[in-house]
Design goal:
Layout lengths: L1 H97 L3 H18 L4 E6 L3 H16 L3 E6 L5 E6 L6 E4 H21 L1
Parallel strand pairs: 1-2
Antiparallel strand pairs: 1-3, 3-4
Helix pairs in contact: 1-4, 2-3
């Protein structure tokens, strides 16, 4: 009986020891797997954070670049607006006043018509401002034709605010000497000078 009990006890102890050993091995394996899972999770979290930081930095650089570019464009636009305002105010009133003055306009028309007449042996056609018809129509009919020694025909248009258009009567083209033409021409010369004076 003692032998049986001893054998039973030994089998029990061996089974218990083996079970304990296997349990510890399983625990070690589970611990190692858990540690690997945690490590992998930490690595993935760090990679996600690093990617997020890089994207945030890239976005910050992009936004800063966009803001800087927008500020430069806004400054350039503001400078151009100031420049246009100065040039427009300087040129427009002066040109409009000059090209709406009948005597001044008669002088320019005569000078251009004489040059035209010398180079183009043809009757001339003029388009003049409707607003100056009363003062300019007699001048064209009675004086300009006699001065040039050829026919001069004038029409008056509301589309011409100041200045005039001139060309051969049947030539199919006109040379524009209107206030818009003069404003554009004078403005193109004044803009670089104005920009330098305003902004250095």
């Amino acid at each position: 009986m003692d032998k049986l009990q001893e054998l039973t006890q030994r089998l029990y102890d061996e089974g218990l020891a083996k079970g304990k050993e296997e349990g510890e091995a399983l625990l070690r394996k589970a611990g190692a797997e858990a540690e690997a899972i945690v490590k992998k999770a930490q690595e993935e979290a760090e990679a996600i954070l690093a990617k997020a930081r890089k994207e945030a930095e890239d976005y910050k650089v992009k936004v800063e670049g966009d803001v800087k570019m927008a500020a430069q464009q806004s400054l350039q636009t503001t400078r151009a607006d100031i420049e246009n305002l100065v040039v427009t105010r300087t040129v427009d009133a002066t040109v409009e006043k000059a090209l709406s003055n009948e005597e001044y306009l008669k002088g320019i028309i005569t000078a251009v018509a004489q040059k035209f007449s010398a180079e183009e042996p043809a009757d001339l056609s003029l388009v003049l401002p409707e607003s100056l018809k009363k003062g300019l129509e007699p001048f064209v009919k009675n004086e300009l034709g006699k001065l040039l020694g050829k026919g001069v025909e004038a029409s008056f248009s509301k589309k011409v605010a100041g200045g005039f258009k001139i060309g051969p009567k049947d030539g199919g083209y006109f040379l524009s000497m209107t206030d818009d033409t003069f404003k554009e021409l004078i403005g193109s010369y004044l803009r670089p000078v104005t920009k330098k004076l305003l902004f250095g």
